[in-house]
Amino acid sequence: MTRRLFPTTRGSVVAALASDESADRARAFDTLVGIYWTPLHRYAQNVHRRTDADDLTQAFLAVAFERESLSAYDVRKGSFRTFLRTLFDRFIANRIRDEGRLKRGGDLKRVDLTEHAAAETPDVLFEREWARSVFTVALERLRQSIDDTAFAMFEEYDLRGGARYAELAAKFAVPETTVTNRLALARRTLRKIVLDLLREITGSEHEFRAEARALLGSDA
Amino acid sequence: MISDQAVERLRTVVTWPDFSGTRYEIVREIGRGGMGSVYEAIDHELGRRVAIKIAEAASPEARLTAQLEHPGIVPIHDAGTLADGRSFYVMKLVRGETISELTLRTFLRICEPVAFAHARGVVHCDLKPSNIMAGEFGEVLVLDWGIANRRGGTEGYMAPDAVVSPAVDVFALGRILAQCGIDSRRLDAIVAMATSPDPAMRYPTAAELMDDVARFLDGRDLVAYRESALERAGRWVYRHRGLLGIIAAYIVMRVVILIAFHR
Protein backbone atom coordinates (compact mmCIF):
# COMPACT_ATOMS: atom_id res chain seq x y z
CA MET A 1 0.00 0.00 0.00
CA THR A 2 1.25 3.46 -0.88
CA ARG A 3 0.82 6.50 1.27
CA ARG A 4 -0.52 9.36 -0.83
CA LEU A 5 2.15 11.95 -0.15
CA PHE A 6 2.12 12.69 -3.87
CA PRO A 7 -0.49 12.42 -6.60
CA THR A 8 0.08 9.00 -8.11
CA THR A 9 1.97 9.06 -11.38
CA ARG A 10 2.63 5.76 -13.06
CA GLY A 11 6.27 4.83 -12.63
CA SER A 12 7.16 7.82 -10.49
CA VAL A 13 9.95 6.88 -8.11
CA VAL A 14 9.37 10.17 -6.32
CA ALA A 15 5.98 8.78 -5.32
CA ALA A 16 7.51 5.39 -4.57
CA LEU A 17 9.78 6.99 -1.93
CA ALA A 18 6.68 7.34 0.22
CA SER A 19 5.70 3.70 -0.19
CA ASP A 20 5.29 1.39 2.79
CA GLU A 21 6.96 -1.35 0.74
CA SER A 22 10.68 -1.40 1.42
CA ALA A 23 11.41 -2.93 -2.02
CA ASP A 24 9.67 0.00 -3.74
CA ARG A 25 11.56 2.48 -1.61
CA ALA A 26 14.88 0.75 -2.32
CA ARG A 27 14.23 0.87 -6.08
CA ALA A 28 13.26 4.53 -5.85
CA PHE A 29 16.35 5.26 -3.77
CA ASP A 30 18.65 3.60 -6.32
CA THR A 31 17.15 5.52 -9.24
CA LEU A 32 17.28 8.88 -7.50
CA VAL A 33 20.81 8.34 -6.21
CA GLY A 34 21.81 7.43 -9.77
CA ILE A 35 20.42 10.74 -11.01
CA TYR A 36 21.27 13.07 -8.15
CA TRP A 37 24.59 11.88 -6.67
CA THR A 38 26.79 13.70 -9.17
CA PRO A 39 24.79 16.96 -9.37
CA LEU A 40 24.73 17.21 -5.55
CA HIS A 41 28.41 16.34 -5.30
CA ARG A 42 29.39 19.00 -7.89
CA TYR A 43 27.06 21.46 -6.19
CA ALA A 44 28.78 20.87 -2.82
CA GLN A 45 32.19 21.26 -4.46
CA ASN A 46 31.54 24.27 -6.66
CA VAL A 47 28.85 26.26 -4.88
CA HIS A 48 29.59 25.50 -1.22
CA ARG A 49 33.31 24.94 -1.89
CA ARG A 50 33.38 21.85 0.31
CA THR A 51 36.45 19.68 0.24
CA ASP A 52 34.47 16.88 1.91
CA ALA A 53 31.84 16.79 -0.88
CA ASP A 54 32.01 12.96 -1.03
CA ASP A 55 31.11 12.42 2.63
CA LEU A 56 28.63 15.26 2.63
CA THR A 57 26.69 13.94 -0.41
CA GLN A 58 26.74 10.42 0.99
CA ALA A 59 25.46 11.55 4.38
CA PHE A 60 22.80 13.76 2.85
CA LEU A 61 21.42 11.08 0.53
CA ALA A 62 21.25 8.61 3.41
CA VAL A 63 18.87 10.85 5.33
CA ALA A 64 17.15 12.70 2.47
CA PHE A 65 15.34 9.75 0.97
CA GLU A 66 13.83 8.65 4.25
CA ARG A 67 10.09 9.11 4.17
CA GLU A 68 10.12 11.61 7.06
CA SER A 69 12.50 13.98 5.25
CA LEU A 70 10.25 14.08 2.24
CA SER A 71 7.00 14.68 4.05
CA ALA A 72 7.42 18.42 3.45
CA TYR A 73 7.55 17.97 -0.31
CA ASP A 74 4.48 19.32 -2.04
CA VAL A 75 4.42 18.56 -5.74
CA ARG A 76 2.17 21.59 -6.37
CA LYS A 77 4.79 24.03 -5.08
CA GLY A 78 7.76 23.18 -7.27
CA SER A 79 9.94 20.51 -8.74
CA PHE A 80 11.43 17.65 -6.76
CA ARG A 81 14.83 18.72 -8.09
CA THR A 82 14.52 22.19 -6.52
CA PHE A 83 13.12 20.74 -3.30
CA LEU A 84 16.06 18.34 -3.00
CA ARG A 85 18.58 21.12 -3.62
CA THR A 86 16.94 23.28 -0.95
CA LEU A 87 17.16 20.37 1.50
CA PHE A 88 20.82 19.97 0.58
CA ASP A 89 21.50 23.68 1.20
CA ARG A 90 19.93 23.36 4.65
CA PHE A 91 21.85 20.16 5.35
CA ILE A 92 25.14 21.88 4.54
CA ALA A 93 24.21 24.97 6.57
CA ASN A 94 23.52 22.72 9.58
CA ARG A 95 26.80 20.90 9.02
CA ILE A 96 28.71 24.19 8.96
CA ARG A 97 26.97 25.30 12.15
CA ASP A 98 27.80 22.00 13.91
CA GLU A 99 31.42 22.19 12.78
CA GLY A 100 31.57 25.71 14.12
CA ARG A 101 30.31 24.59 17.51
CA LEU A 102 32.84 21.77 17.63
CA LYS A 103 35.62 24.22 17.01
CA ARG A 104 34.33 26.40 19.92
CA GLY A 105 33.54 29.58 18.21
CA GLY A 106 33.88 28.24 14.75
CA ASP A 107 37.08 29.15 13.09
CA LEU A 108 35.94 27.33 9.96
CA LYS A 109 35.67 29.45 6.88
CA ARG A 110 32.03 30.16 6.14
CA VAL A 111 31.52 30.32 2.48
CA ASP A 112 29.41 33.15 1.23
CA LEU A 113 27.31 31.81 -1.65
CA THR A 114 27.31 35.17 -3.41
CA GLU A 115 31.10 34.99 -3.53
CA HIS A 116 30.92 32.36 -6.27
CA ALA A 117 27.82 33.58 -7.99
CA ALA A 118 29.59 35.75 -10.53
CA ALA A 119 30.47 33.05 -13.05
CA GLU A 120 27.45 30.79 -12.68
CA THR A 121 24.43 30.84 -10.40
CA PRO A 122 23.81 27.80 -8.17
CA ASP A 123 20.56 27.20 -10.11
CA VAL A 124 22.34 27.06 -13.45
CA LEU A 125 25.12 24.83 -12.14
CA PHE A 126 22.72 22.38 -10.52
CA GLU A 127 20.47 22.24 -13.58
CA ARG A 128 23.42 21.70 -15.91
CA GLU A 129 24.78 18.86 -13.76
CA TRP A 130 21.30 17.37 -13.44
CA ALA A 131 20.90 17.36 -17.25
CA ARG A 132 24.30 15.71 -17.62
CA SER A 133 23.32 13.08 -15.07
CA VAL A 134 19.94 12.36 -16.71
CA PHE A 135 21.61 11.86 -20.09
CA THR A 136 24.36 9.69 -18.54
CA VAL A 137 21.79 7.36 -16.95
CA ALA A 138 19.72 7.37 -20.17
CA LEU A 139 22.78 6.43 -22.23
CA GLU A 140 23.49 3.49 -19.93
CA ARG A 141 19.91 2.32 -20.37
CA LEU A 142 20.24 2.76 -24.13
CA ARG A 143 23.36 0.60 -24.09
CA GLN A 144 21.32 -2.14 -22.44
CA SER A 145 18.35 -1.67 -24.79
CA ILE A 146 19.92 -1.94 -28.23
CA ASP A 147 22.52 -4.23 -29.75
CA ASP A 148 26.23 -3.43 -29.40
CA THR A 149 26.70 -2.48 -33.06
CA ALA A 150 23.82 0.01 -33.02
CA PHE A 151 25.14 1.54 -29.81
CA ALA A 152 28.66 1.77 -31.21
CA MET A 153 27.30 3.53 -34.32
CA PHE A 154 25.30 5.88 -32.15
CA GLU A 155 28.35 6.66 -30.01
CA GLU A 156 30.47 7.48 -33.03
CA TYR A 157 27.90 9.42 -35.02
CA ASP A 158 25.73 11.19 -32.46
CA LEU A 159 27.70 11.25 -29.23
CA ARG A 160 31.23 11.94 -30.42
CA GLY A 161 30.23 13.45 -33.77
CA GLY A 162 32.38 13.78 -36.89
CA ALA A 163 31.72 10.33 -38.39
CA ARG A 164 29.97 9.88 -41.75
CA TYR A 165 27.42 7.27 -42.75
CA ALA A 166 29.78 5.85 -45.38
CA GLU A 167 32.64 5.55 -42.86
CA LEU A 168 30.40 3.72 -40.39
CA ALA A 169 29.09 1.45 -43.13
CA ALA A 170 32.67 0.52 -44.07
CA LYS A 171 33.76 0.08 -40.46
CA PHE A 172 30.85 -2.19 -39.54
CA ALA A 173 30.69 -3.85 -42.98
CA VAL A 174 27.02 -3.04 -43.54
CA PRO A 175 25.15 -1.02 -46.18
CA GLU A 176 24.61 2.70 -45.48
CA THR A 177 20.87 2.15 -45.16
CA THR A 178 21.56 -0.21 -42.26
CA VAL A 179 23.57 2.55 -40.58
CA THR A 180 20.78 5.11 -40.97
CA ASN A 181 18.16 2.60 -39.80
CA ARG A 182 20.18 1.61 -36.73
CA LEU A 183 20.82 5.25 -35.87
CA ALA A 184 17.14 6.10 -36.27
CA LEU A 185 16.25 3.22 -33.96
CA ALA A 186 18.86 4.29 -31.38
CA ARG A 187 17.63 7.90 -31.41
CA ARG A 188 13.99 6.87 -31.10
CA THR A 189 14.85 4.52 -28.24
CA LEU A 190 16.93 7.17 -26.47
CA ARG A 191 14.09 9.67 -26.74
CA LYS A 192 11.70 7.18 -25.16
CA ILE A 193 14.22 6.33 -22.42
CA VAL A 194 14.79 10.01 -21.58
CA LEU A 195 11.08 10.77 -21.38
CA ASP A 196 10.38 7.62 -19.33
CA LEU A 197 13.23 8.55 -17.00
CA LEU A 198 11.81 12.07 -16.56
CA ARG A 199 8.44 10.56 -15.73
CA GLU A 200 10.12 8.36 -13.14
CA ILE A 201 11.90 11.20 -11.37
CA THR A 202 8.99 13.63 -11.30
CA GLY A 203 5.90 13.58 -9.15
CA SER A 204 3.21 14.94 -11.49
CA GLU A 205 2.38 15.53 -15.15
CA HIS A 206 2.92 19.27 -14.70
CA GLU A 207 6.36 18.71 -13.17
CA PHE A 208 7.22 16.22 -15.93
CA ARG A 209 6.43 18.82 -18.59
CA ALA A 210 8.40 21.53 -16.80
CA GLU A 211 11.44 19.25 -16.42
CA ALA A 212 11.18 18.17 -20.08
CA ARG A 213 11.24 21.85 -21.04
CA ALA A 214 14.28 22.38 -18.80
CA LEU A 215 16.10 19.38 -20.26
CA LEU A 216 15.12 19.54 -23.92
CA GLY A 217 14.16 23.17 -24.43
CA SER A 218 10.61 22.37 -25.56
CA ASP A 219 7.49 20.60 -24.34
CA ALA A 220 7.56 16.82 -24.17
CA MET B 1 30.38 11.51 -17.15
CA ILE B 2 29.71 13.04 -20.53
CA SER B 3 30.99 16.42 -21.69
CA ASP B 4 28.95 19.61 -22.12
CA GLN B 5 29.25 19.22 -25.91
CA ALA B 6 27.94 15.66 -25.71
CA VAL B 7 24.97 16.86 -23.61
CA GLU B 8 24.16 19.45 -26.28
CA ARG B 9 24.42 16.84 -29.03
CA LEU B 10 22.15 14.48 -27.11
CA ARG B 11 19.61 17.27 -26.60
CA THR B 12 19.50 17.74 -30.36
CA VAL B 13 19.36 13.98 -31.02
CA VAL B 14 16.45 13.49 -28.63
CA THR B 15 14.41 16.38 -30.07
CA TRP B 16 15.42 16.03 -33.77
CA PRO B 17 12.43 14.60 -35.67
CA ASP B 18 12.98 11.36 -37.55
CA PHE B 19 11.66 11.66 -41.13
CA SER B 20 13.82 8.88 -42.56
CA GLY B 21 11.99 6.96 -45.28
CA THR B 22 9.58 9.83 -45.96
CA ARG B 23 9.42 12.55 -48.62
CA TYR B 24 10.79 15.11 -46.14
CA GLU B 25 14.37 15.82 -45.12
CA ILE B 26 15.01 18.11 -42.18
CA VAL B 27 17.61 20.81 -42.88
CA ARG B 28 17.75 22.91 -39.71
CA GLU B 29 15.77 24.11 -36.73
CA ILE B 30 14.38 27.60 -37.32
CA GLY B 31 12.34 28.20 -34.19
CA ARG B 32 11.51 26.74 -30.80
CA GLY B 33 8.79 27.52 -28.30
CA GLY B 34 6.58 26.08 -25.63
CA MET B 35 4.23 24.61 -28.22
CA GLY B 36 6.95 22.83 -30.20
CA SER B 37 9.74 23.40 -32.67
CA VAL B 38 9.77 24.47 -36.31
CA TYR B 39 12.26 23.11 -38.83
CA GLU B 40 13.16 24.00 -42.39
CA ALA B 41 12.90 20.89 -44.55
CA ILE B 42 13.03 19.74 -48.17
CA ASP B 43 9.97 18.10 -49.68
CA HIS B 44 11.72 15.76 -52.14
CA GLU B 45 8.43 14.76 -53.78
CA LEU B 46 7.71 18.29 -54.98
CA GLY B 47 11.27 19.63 -54.90
CA ARG B 48 10.59 22.59 -52.62
CA ARG B 49 11.51 23.90 -49.20
CA VAL B 50 8.85 23.73 -46.51
CA ALA B 51 8.50 24.43 -42.79
CA ILE B 52 7.60 21.54 -40.49
CA LYS B 53 6.22 22.15 -37.04
CA ILE B 54 6.63 19.38 -34.48
CA ALA B 55 4.20 19.32 -31.57
CA GLU B 56 4.54 16.94 -28.64
CA ALA B 57 0.86 16.56 -28.03
CA ALA B 58 -1.77 16.37 -30.75
CA SER B 59 -2.56 20.02 -31.44
CA PRO B 60 -5.73 21.33 -33.09
CA GLU B 61 -3.59 23.99 -34.80
CA ALA B 62 -3.19 22.10 -38.09
CA ARG B 63 -6.92 21.43 -38.52
CA LEU B 64 -7.88 24.93 -37.38
CA THR B 65 -5.40 26.66 -39.66
CA ALA B 66 -6.26 24.38 -42.58
CA GLN B 67 -9.82 25.76 -42.39
CA LEU B 68 -8.52 29.32 -42.70
CA GLU B 69 -7.69 29.79 -46.35
CA HIS B 70 -6.58 33.40 -46.46
CA PRO B 71 -3.54 35.07 -48.08
CA GLY B 72 -2.57 36.41 -44.63
CA ILE B 73 -2.45 32.93 -43.05
CA VAL B 74 0.31 30.41 -43.85
CA PRO B 75 -1.24 27.44 -45.68
CA ILE B 76 -0.91 23.88 -44.33
CA HIS B 77 0.16 21.25 -46.89
CA ASP B 78 0.31 18.05 -44.87
CA ALA B 79 0.02 16.65 -41.34
CA GLY B 80 0.79 13.36 -39.60
CA THR B 81 2.38 11.52 -36.70
CA LEU B 82 6.06 10.63 -36.28
CA ALA B 83 7.24 7.15 -35.28
CA ASP B 84 7.88 8.43 -31.75
CA GLY B 85 4.27 9.63 -31.37
CA ARG B 86 4.83 13.35 -31.89
CA SER B 87 2.58 15.07 -34.35
CA PHE B 88 3.82 17.22 -37.22
CA TYR B 89 2.41 19.43 -39.89
CA VAL B 90 3.97 20.80 -43.01
CA MET B 91 3.38 24.35 -44.13
CA LYS B 92 4.67 26.92 -46.54
CA LEU B 93 8.16 28.12 -45.64
CA VAL B 94 7.80 31.85 -45.12
CA ARG B 95 10.80 33.85 -46.22
CA GLY B 96 10.68 37.32 -44.78
CA GLU B 97 11.12 39.27 -41.62
CA THR B 98 9.04 40.27 -38.67
CA ILE B 99 7.65 43.75 -39.07
CA SER B 100 10.00 46.36 -37.68
CA GLU B 101 8.17 49.53 -38.70
CA LEU B 102 4.44 49.48 -38.35
CA THR B 103 2.27 51.80 -40.43
CA LEU B 104 -1.50 52.09 -40.20
CA ARG B 105 -1.85 50.54 -43.68
CA THR B 106 0.19 47.53 -42.49
CA PHE B 107 -1.91 47.37 -39.35
CA LEU B 108 -5.06 47.07 -41.46
CA ARG B 109 -3.47 44.16 -43.32
CA ILE B 110 -2.69 42.46 -40.00
CA CYS B 111 -6.34 42.86 -39.01
CA GLU B 112 -7.64 41.27 -42.24
CA PRO B 113 -6.69 37.60 -41.56
CA VAL B 114 -7.59 38.00 -37.88
CA ALA B 115 -11.04 39.36 -38.82
CA PHE B 116 -11.38 36.49 -41.32
CA ALA B 117 -10.57 33.98 -38.55
CA HIS B 118 -13.01 35.65 -36.14
CA ALA B 119 -15.77 35.32 -38.73
CA ARG B 120 -15.07 31.55 -38.70
CA GLY B 121 -15.02 31.23 -34.92
CA VAL B 122 -11.23 31.11 -34.52
CA VAL B 123 -9.39 33.34 -32.04
CA HIS B 124 -5.59 33.52 -32.43
CA CYS B 125 -4.90 34.17 -28.70
CA ASP B 126 -1.20 35.05 -29.12
CA LEU B 127 -1.01 38.08 -31.41
CA LYS B 128 2.22 40.04 -31.01
CA PRO B 129 4.75 41.63 -33.37
CA SER B 130 6.98 38.53 -33.45
CA ASN B 131 4.05 36.52 -34.84
CA ILE B 132 3.56 38.91 -37.73
CA MET B 133 5.77 38.63 -40.75
CA ALA B 134 6.27 40.60 -43.93
CA GLY B 135 6.90 38.21 -46.82
CA GLU B 136 9.31 38.66 -49.72
CA PHE B 137 6.65 40.25 -51.92
CA GLY B 138 5.20 42.59 -49.32
CA GLU B 139 2.52 40.19 -48.08
CA VAL B 140 1.65 40.40 -44.39
CA LEU B 141 1.26 37.04 -42.62
CA VAL B 142 -0.09 36.22 -39.18
CA LEU B 143 1.82 33.19 -37.84
CA ASP B 144 1.64 30.69 -35.00
CA TRP B 145 -1.95 29.70 -34.40
CA GLY B 146 -0.66 27.11 -31.89
CA ILE B 147 -2.85 28.20 -28.99
CA ALA B 148 -5.86 29.30 -31.08
CA ASN B 149 -9.11 29.26 -29.10
CA ARG B 150 -7.20 28.52 -25.86
CA ARG B 151 -6.28 30.71 -22.92
CA GLY B 152 -2.72 31.94 -23.17
CA GLY B 153 -0.70 34.66 -24.82
CA THR B 154 2.32 36.80 -24.18
CA GLU B 155 2.76 39.38 -21.46
CA GLY B 156 2.14 42.87 -22.77
CA TYR B 157 -0.36 41.61 -25.35
CA MET B 158 -2.47 39.26 -23.22
CA ALA B 159 -5.95 40.49 -22.30
CA PRO B 160 -7.02 40.12 -18.66
CA ASP B 161 -10.15 38.25 -19.80
CA ALA B 162 -11.52 35.17 -18.07
CA VAL B 163 -12.87 33.63 -21.27
CA VAL B 164 -11.58 33.34 -24.81
CA SER B 165 -13.42 35.52 -27.32
CA PRO B 166 -12.43 37.66 -30.33
CA ALA B 167 -12.05 40.53 -27.84
CA VAL B 168 -8.83 38.82 -26.67
CA ASP B 169 -7.31 39.39 -30.12
CA VAL B 170 -8.76 42.92 -30.27
CA PHE B 171 -6.86 43.71 -27.04
CA ALA B 172 -3.57 42.43 -28.52
CA LEU B 173 -4.20 44.32 -31.77
CA GLY B 174 -4.80 47.47 -29.72
CA ARG B 175 -1.41 47.00 -28.05
CA ILE B 176 0.18 46.55 -31.48
CA LEU B 177 -1.64 49.62 -32.83
CA ALA B 178 -0.23 51.69 -29.96
CA GLN B 179 3.24 50.98 -31.39
CA CYS B 180 2.46 52.89 -34.61
CA GLY B 181 3.75 55.98 -32.83
CA ILE B 182 1.21 58.40 -34.29
CA ASP B 183 0.33 61.30 -32.04
CA SER B 184 -3.40 61.73 -32.41
CA ARG B 185 -6.24 62.01 -29.93
CA ARG B 186 -8.53 60.13 -32.28
CA LEU B 187 -6.10 57.25 -32.73
CA ASP B 188 -5.45 57.18 -28.96
CA ALA B 189 -9.20 56.73 -28.52
CA ILE B 190 -9.16 53.70 -30.83
CA VAL B 191 -6.27 52.21 -28.86
CA ALA B 192 -8.06 52.92 -25.55
CA MET B 193 -11.24 51.24 -26.77
CA ALA B 194 -9.38 48.22 -28.16
CA THR B 195 -7.40 47.73 -24.94
CA SER B 196 -10.19 48.37 -22.45
CA PRO B 197 -9.86 46.05 -19.42
CA ASP B 198 -13.54 45.20 -19.88
CA PRO B 199 -13.95 43.00 -22.98
CA ALA B 200 -17.54 44.24 -23.40
CA MET B 201 -16.23 47.79 -23.93
CA ARG B 202 -13.85 46.76 -26.75
CA TYR B 203 -14.61 46.34 -30.44
CA PRO B 204 -16.34 42.97 -30.60
CA THR B 205 -14.07 41.61 -33.36
CA ALA B 206 -11.02 42.62 -35.39
CA ALA B 207 -13.32 43.65 -38.26
CA GLU B 208 -14.84 46.53 -36.23
CA LEU B 209 -11.40 47.66 -35.07
CA MET B 210 -10.17 47.54 -38.66
CA ASP B 211 -13.16 49.60 -39.82
CA ASP B 212 -12.51 52.29 -37.20
CA VAL B 213 -8.81 52.54 -38.17
CA ALA B 214 -9.86 52.80 -41.84
CA ARG B 215 -12.31 55.59 -40.88
CA PHE B 216 -9.45 57.34 -39.04
CA LEU B 217 -7.31 57.17 -42.17
CA ASP B 218 -10.18 58.57 -44.28
CA GLY B 219 -10.88 61.34 -41.74
CA ARG B 220 -14.40 60.09 -41.06
CA ASP B 221 -16.36 59.84 -37.77
CA LEU B 222 -15.09 57.17 -35.37
CA VAL B 223 -16.95 54.72 -33.16
CA ALA B 224 -14.29 55.21 -30.49
CA TYR B 225 -14.28 59.02 -30.34
CA ARG B 226 -17.07 61.54 -29.80
CA GLU B 227 -15.81 64.94 -30.90
CA SER B 228 -17.00 68.49 -30.23
CA ALA B 229 -18.77 70.56 -32.93
CA LEU B 230 -15.62 72.64 -33.37
CA GLU B 231 -13.41 69.56 -33.80
CA ARG B 232 -15.91 68.12 -36.24
CA ALA B 233 -15.99 71.37 -38.24
CA GLY B 234 -12.21 71.54 -38.27
CA ARG B 235 -11.94 67.92 -39.46
CA TRP B 236 -14.62 68.60 -42.12
CA VAL B 237 -12.64 71.56 -43.40
CA TYR B 238 -9.42 69.55 -43.42
CA ARG B 239 -11.05 66.58 -45.14
CA HIS B 240 -12.56 68.79 -47.86
CA ARG B 241 -9.63 71.15 -48.10
CA GLY B 242 -9.18 70.51 -51.82
CA LEU B 243 -12.75 71.38 -52.74
CA LEU B 244 -12.77 74.30 -50.30
CA GLY B 245 -9.56 75.59 -51.87
CA ILE B 246 -11.14 75.53 -55.34
CA ILE B 247 -14.28 77.30 -54.05
CA ALA B 248 -12.17 79.91 -52.24
CA ALA B 249 -10.06 80.49 -55.36
CA TYR B 250 -13.24 80.84 -57.43
CA ILE B 251 -14.72 83.38 -54.99
CA VAL B 252 -11.48 85.37 -54.91
CA MET B 253 -11.41 85.35 -58.70
CA ARG B 254 -15.04 86.56 -58.90
CA VAL B 255 -14.34 89.31 -56.38
CA VAL B 256 -11.27 90.42 -58.35
CA ILE B 257 -13.31 90.45 -61.61
CA LEU B 258 -16.18 92.32 -59.90
CA ILE B 259 -13.81 95.00 -58.56
CA ALA B 260 -12.12 95.31 -61.94
CA PHE B 261 -15.43 95.85 -63.75
CA HIS B 262 -16.63 98.46 -61.22
CA ARG B 263 -13.63 100.72 -61.72
What is the secondary structure topology, with strand pairs?
The complex is a heterodimer of chains A (220) and B (263).
Chain A: H1 13-16, H2 22-46, H3 53-64, H4 67-70, H5 80-102, H6 122-145, H7 148-160, H8 165-172, H9 176-200, H10 205-216
Helix pairs in contact in A: 2-3, 2-6, 3-5, 6-9, 7-9, 8-9
Chain B: H1 4-15, E1 24-33, E2 36-43, E3 48-55, H2 61-67, E4 76-81, E5 87-92, E6 96-98, H3 104-119, E7 132-135, E8 140-142, H4 166-177, H5 185-194, H6 206-218, H7 229-239, H8 241-262
Antiparallel strand pairs in B: 1-2, 2-3, 3-5, 4-5, 6-7, 7-8
Helix pairs in contact in B: 3-4, 3-6, 4-5, 5-6
Question: What are its keywords?
Answer:
heterodimer, A: 220 residues, mainly alpha, elongated, disordered N terminus, B: 263 residues, alpha+beta, Phosphorylase Kinase, domain 1, Transferase(Phosphotransferase), domain 1, 8 helices, 8 strands
Please, could you describe this protein's structure?
Chain A is 68% helix and 0% strand. Chain A has helices at residues 13-16, 22-46, 53-64, 67-70, 80-102, 122-145, 148-160, 165-172, 176-200, 205-216. In chain A, helix 6 (122-145) packs across helix 9. In chain B, the strands form two sheets. Chain B has a five-stranded antiparallel sheet with strand order 1-2-3-5-4, covered by helices on one side. The longest helix of chain B is centred in the last third of the chain and has 22 residues, at 241-262. The termini of chain B are far apart. The mean pLDDT of chain B is 90. The A-B interface holds A 38, 128, 131-133, 135-136, 138-139, 158-161, 180-181, 184, 187-188, 190-192, 194, 213, 215-220 and B 1-2, 4-7, 9-11, 13-16, 18, 20, 32-37, 55-57, 83-84.
